[in-house]
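Reopening: structure tokens for the methionine sulfoxide complex, inputs below.
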Amino acid sequence: MSESLSLPQSEAREPIYQALIPQIKALTDSENDCTANLANIAAALKQAFDFFWVGFYRVDADTLVLGPFQGPLACTRIPFAKGVCGAAWQRKQTLVVADVDAFPGHIACSSSSRSEIVLPLYKAGKVALVLDIDSDKLNDFSELDQHYLEQLQPIIERFL
Ligand code: SME
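Re-run output (same inputs, fresh job):
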């Protein structure tokens, strides 16, 4: 697998997701190091969509700890149930937040972040990580993003 992405020139996200996800699968299927794979997934999502912030938080006891990411500096620790990330961990579900200012307890690592999607990732039936993507645009994530990003869950869970 070459270390570059081949992506269509498109304003629409769907063809980009359709090209990107098999390439992320191929890239990570040939490598078992968790940190290396998470770092490349964050880079691939950032490169494909130029999201404001893309990264992972890892569950460590009762806290999420910052993992590989692309974007501005971020909060290093998020307690269980706090913020969108902690809520996705607590509820064990993908959260799509159209306006972060309207989400009770949202943690503003950056005032530029306006909308957000967070997906939990499981190891042995427990949330082990969350994938967090922030946009600097309001209402930037839809069911389409959720549908395709959830296809990354089994790809990531293979190497956790
Ligand atoms: N906004 C997140 C915190 C993480 S940063 O956005 C990178 C939250 O509310 O959980």
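Residues 57 and 66 are 5 Å apart (CA to CA). The chain has one domain: 13-157. Marking as resolved unless the reporter disagrees.
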